[in-house]
Amino acid sequence: MAGGVLAWSVGIAYIAYDTLLQAFTGWKTWALLRPTAPTAAPSRGSRVTVAVIVAAHNEAAVLPATLGALLAQHDPPEEILVADDGSTDRTAEVLFARHGLTPPEPGETSRVVAGR
Q1: Is this prediction's pTM over 0.85?
Q2: 88 secondary structure, DSSP code
Q3: Mean pLDDT of 1-7
Q4: Which of 52, 88, 92, 93 has fewest C-beta within 10 Å?
């Protein structure tokens, strides 16, 4: 008898907890359902600056497609930084040949700035 009462008590407590949790979640997400006032489009001078870091380690096969997709966006980033961590598969050569860069001197960086 005591086991049945305990099982029923745990079940009722779980149902109450679950109901309260669902009510709390609904209350917190109610704001997402309300329409928001449209905001004015930012002027060209107030645009947020965007830079992208591409981590590359042995990415010679996919690096041209990645950079091409970034540069082909409707609103491309102002700067793309490729961080090559000692690739052994010609990643650097592909990057330099495809974008007309020369390898940097030791201790320097090579940058590509997306044109507008």
Answers
A1: no
A2: S
A3: 78
A4: 88
